[in-house]
């Protein structure tokens, strides 16, 4: 078995109360610690915030310098819309730096003449692996053009696929396995995984090429192989918790000791966490990347969720933002609320929900938390628009009668809720935006917010932007009018600022209106 060196890079939009490690990154790290600890000789977790990063060039140079020090065999990045620019620059600089050290050295080994063997020592640029929404939702056969400096790409939930990559790279293939593939995909210095490995000349280009079998991993696309566009899946019940101690799985005779690893996100001395109980969303909103290919919600195991609740209520955590795309659409959300009641969680609990999916049991359990346990529940409803033409194009139709009725119920039970809208939608005007605001303000929400439309990669709106006449612009707060709310601008991210139904000046006016809501 060959042990490998890994560098994980997390480039996040970290807000003031966020943990330094985001939950997706932490879940991958936890999975590696549980299932691959015996295959990894070095694992470095690089975490950076790209929020308010004005010097992208200097920032990327610093990241590259840190990666070079690691001397990794595998470097992995999570790519999101907010770090696309940073990732591209880092990859370009890192590849350039690695080319400067690529070399092949030839020497001899053996006790005497006639017994020596020619040895080759390869030092090649590390494999670069990318995952995250920008990768998951990229159209088929576009990844290599988007990211010319990357080698491997994971679409979908990356924990299992990433673990399989590490397992494959750490396990030398047999000569027969690689030879069978080499006729279709010739093994070269560019696609072999070789780093400081000494082997005999006649088998070096074969027996040390585990990348020849990487394309077998579901959801993984390997440069130079057909892009099948498959999404990686994961058994949610098998994922270790990043909030709990992690015991490596003893599944190999050469395994290191079973010492328990500390939680990736320790709960001690922490007041705020982002948490998940399930993944997937049953809706098909055309602006949203939560368009998973799974027909059912995928819950985390009930024992894990229960253990996390026990750990949370025993810690200093008093503010939880649940990341489930639609909390009240899953199979186990009522049992989650039951356990929060049982262990008397008294802090703030933010839940993303849907008005039309509110059931009497949901109201009842939320009411117990609020009125008996003294939990500060904040339900977040994404109404987005009440205008029929706008709602149809984004496939987010709201039953306005149900919205009104459920708002009355929530107010009756003292359950706080927030409503969000979007401006910059197709067919939207200043007047239609004001009409949506007027309707939701009358529902008794504690807070109404509005966000600018961004065309996320792979969404239906992004695919139809030319057809719909949506014009994007990468905005910088320094270039906007001084009276505009600069904190609402995400630097480096394209916003829809013009369409056939509104001008850029109209968009600026909607932005001012949105700012006044808060």
TrEMBL record:
Keywords: Iron, Iron-sulfur, Metal-binding, S-adenosyl-L-methionine. One of its GO terms (cellular component) is cytosol. SUPFAM superfamilies: Radical SAM enzymes. Residues 267-494 form the Radical SAM core domain. The keyword Iron-sulfur applies. The keyword Repressor does not apply. Its cofactor is [4Fe-4S] cluster. This is 4534_t:CDS:1. One of its GO terms (molecular function) is iron-sulfur cluster binding. InterPro entries: BchE-like, Elp3/MiaA/NifB-like_rSAM, rSAM, rSAM_horseshoe, rSAM_sf. It holds the Pfam family Radical_SAM.
């Amino acid at each position: 078995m060959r042990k490998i060196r890994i560098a994980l890079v997390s480039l996040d939009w970290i807000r003031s109360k966020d943990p330094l490690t985001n939950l997706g990154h932490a879940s991958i790290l936890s999975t590696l610690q549980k299932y691959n600890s015996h295959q990894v000789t070095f694992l470095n977790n690089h975490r950076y915030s790209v929020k308010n990063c004005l010097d992208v060039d200097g920032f990327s140079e610093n990241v590259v310098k840190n990666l070079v020090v690691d001397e990794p065999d595998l470097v992995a990045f999570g790519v999101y819309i907010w770090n696309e620019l940073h990732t591209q620059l880092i990859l370009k600089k890192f590849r350039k730096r690695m080319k400067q050290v690529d070399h092949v050295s030839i020497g001899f080994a053996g006790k005497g003449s006639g017994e020596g063997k020619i040895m080759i020592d390869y030092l090649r640029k590390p494999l670069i692996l990318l995952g995250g929404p920008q990768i998951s939702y990229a159209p088929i056969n576009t990844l290599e053009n988007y990211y010319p400096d990357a080698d491997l790409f994971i679409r979908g939930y990356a924990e299992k696929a990433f673990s399989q990559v590490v397992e494959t790279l750490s396990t030398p293939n047999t000569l027969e396995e690689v030879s069978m593939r080499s006729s279709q995909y010739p093994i070269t210095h560019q696609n072999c995984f070789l780093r400081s490995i000494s082997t005999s000349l006649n088998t070096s280009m074969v027996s040390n090429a585990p990348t020849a079998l990487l394309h077998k991993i579901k959801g993984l696309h390997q440069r130079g192989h057909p892009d099948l566009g498959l999404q990686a899946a994961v058994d949610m019940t098998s994922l270790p918790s990043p909030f709990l101690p992690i015991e490596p799985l003893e599944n190999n005779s050469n395994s290191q000791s079973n010492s328990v690893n500390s939680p990736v996100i320790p709960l001690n001395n922490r007041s705020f966490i982002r948490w998940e109980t399930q993944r997937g969303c049953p809706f098909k909103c055309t602006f949203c990347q939560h368009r998973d290919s799974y027909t059912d919600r995928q819950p985390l195991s009930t024992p894990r969720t229960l253990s996390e609740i026990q750990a949370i209520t025993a810690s200093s955590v008093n503010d939880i933002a649940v990341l489930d795309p639609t909390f009240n659409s899953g199979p186990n959300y009522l049992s989650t609320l039951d356990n929060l009641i049982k262990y008397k969680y008294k802090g703030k609990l933010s839940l993303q929900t849907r008005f039309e999916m509110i059931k009497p049991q949901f109201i009842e359990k939320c009411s117990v938390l609020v009125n008996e346990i003294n939990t500060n529940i904040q339900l977040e409803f994404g109404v987005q628009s009440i205008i029929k033409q706008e709602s149809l194009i984004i496939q987010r139709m709201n039953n306005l009668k149900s919205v009104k009725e459920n708002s009355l119920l929530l107010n009756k039970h003292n359950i706080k809720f927030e409503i969000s809208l979007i401006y910059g939608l197709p067919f939207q005007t200043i007047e239609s935006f004001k009409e949506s605001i007027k309707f939701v303000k009358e529902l008794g929400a504690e807070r109404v917010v509005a966000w600018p439309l961004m065309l996320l990669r792979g969404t239906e709106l992004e695919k139809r932007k030319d057809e719909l006449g949506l014009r994007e612009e990468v905005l910088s707060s320094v270039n906007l009018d001084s009276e505009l709310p600069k904190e609402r601008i995400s630097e480096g991210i394209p916003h829809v600022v013009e369409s056939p139904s509104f001008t850029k000046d109209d968009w600026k006016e909607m932005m001012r209106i949105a700012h006044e809501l808060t």
